[in-house]
Amino acid sequence: MSRGLRLIPIILLLFVLSGLAWRLIKPADTAVPSQMVERPVPQFMLAAALADKPGLAAADLATGQPHLLNIFASWCVPCASEGKVLQELRRHGVTVDGIAVRDTPDALSAFLARNGDPYARIGADRQSDVQIALGSSGVPETFVVDGRGVIRRQYIGPLSNSNVPGVLQELEQLR
């Protein structure tokens, strides 16, 4: 067997190993975008997550004015940092409604006391049924909903201060 033929298996092995190493260094995007973007919010009616705040229904998102719909939980670490950003958006006149996923009233009250409460309404999604219907794969996620109740954009993960100008511009365009 010639010397060149003996190198072929080694070259193939190096090629395969380099391909695997590349996937470890640069993993695929794990975000799962919702198929509901550009579609109406699915019909739902959630009971109030807290006694002092109204629950949330799909009809509340089709009032003629755009909204942010934030899916969050008290047990979600990134949701705590997102609270300040949502409060900033509310100070700019943005209506922020929330869906609390798999949460309890006591834990939710403590979470909002610690991190601020930007929400006009909070619905309790105890079994994640509405979260799944929206096409959300985790918390936090935020949906931009136009005045007719159509989802226009999905933000996967926590909103940051760098998102504020873009969100305000999107909502202004939807007015």
Number of helices: 5
Tell me the strand order in the biggest sheet: 5-4-3-6-7
Annotated CATH topology: Glutaredoxin
Number of domains: 1
Tell me the radius of gyration. Answer: 22 Å
Count every beta strand, where a strand is a DSSP E run of 2 or more residues.
7
Overall pLDDT? 91
Which short descriptors sum up this protein?
7 strands; 175 residues; alpha/beta; single chain; two-stranded antiparallel sheet
What does this structure look like?
The protein has 175 residues and is of the alpha/beta class. The protein has a single domain (45-174), classed as 3-Layer(aba) Sandwich (Glutaredoxin), CATH 3.40.30.10. Helix content is 37%, strand content 18%. It is built from five helices and seven strands; from the N terminus they run αβββαβαβαββα. The strands form two sheets. It has a five-stranded mixed beta sheet with strand order 5-4-3-6-7. A two-stranded antiparallel sheet has the order 1-2. Helix 2 packs across helix 3 (105-115). The longest helix has 23 residues, at 3-25.
